[in-house]
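Usage

Read records sequentially. Each one opens with the input sequence:
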Amino acid sequence: MGKTSRKRYTREFKLSLIRELESGKKLGQLSRENNIHPNMISRWKLEYDKDPGSAFKGNGNTYKDAARNEELERLVGKLYAENDFLKKALNILEKRVQEEKERSKAG
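and closes with the structure output:
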């Protein structure tokens, strides 16, 4: 199987979770709803509390980018298999045409 990478979330997503926390939503509930470990959400909250202006200014891939990459990799694999199948089919047809030519010359 392929390399497993960590999920990356956008700044906007992290800020939306922090806003929900600040509005009174429970950490455990946020964690379950978004399938994110509570420690991660707490870490984001601490980072935001230290310096709201510069929190989450990473340049990594987002989770959506990773999902799109996986989708494209599956498509590439499918296209490789399809291409291989078509090459084999063409080879078989070329052999049949060659055999027909040889039969018509002999007959």
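Summary fields computed downstream for this record:
- The chain has four helices and no strands.
- The domain at 8-60 is CATH 1.10.10 (Arc Repressor Mutant, subunit A).
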